[in-house]
Amino acid sequence: MSILVVTGTDTGVGKTIVTAAVASLARERGSSVAVVKPAQTGVTDTEPGDLDDVIRLSGVRTTFELSRFPDPLAPAAAARLAGLPPVSLVQAAIRIKELAGSHQLVIVEGAGGLLVRFDEEGSTLADLARMISAPVLLVTRAALGTLNHTALTLEAMAHRGLEPAGVVIGSWPAEPGLAERSNVSDLEMLAARPLAGALPEGAGLLDRESFAHTARAGLGPALGGGFDPAAFRTTLRLFP
User: Which of 73, 98, 162, 181 has the fewest CB atoms nearer than 10 Å to its CB?
Assistant: First the structure.
């Protein structure tokens, strides 16, 4: 794949960490990588954003933040409140396609979930993914409530003809409870395929070398890692 879109079932599910992990593995195997964030919200011009975390964790420095708005809102609302023009997904698509012509992998990280509005016309990350003909990697939670959010997002993707690149648990707890352990098989059922990965909680706090090791262990072969969903399932211990 030359372009990969990363979205989530919600905000705070680990999209940036998964984006960094995919970028880290691609860089490790010698691929040229660019990471694009069409809209960053919730940070001022002087504060670090999501791409700063991607750079710190992965070492990939070819990053592009196309718009930034200070309020922690959906991009359309944040632009409106700031009195700034909204991000143009048409222009974003043009830039991403240009980058795909000179890079082996371009990773596009969304804001919030798949259908969060980027402008007053209701354009979403799903629309951008269709414009650039890119598969979509879905990052989800492990906890109670994730099944509904995941099912709705996958259904929205299918309805729009988007190609799924897999489902990754963005933050797998060190001590998973019954809900987390039980949800794994249901997430795979919803995705109609094994998990594409599960990154441990706290991965974003690691140094670059440790993060690279974690990315290799936490992402599946399609994403450049060695995550084995069958072996992962054997650790869940659903029954005494």
Answer: 98
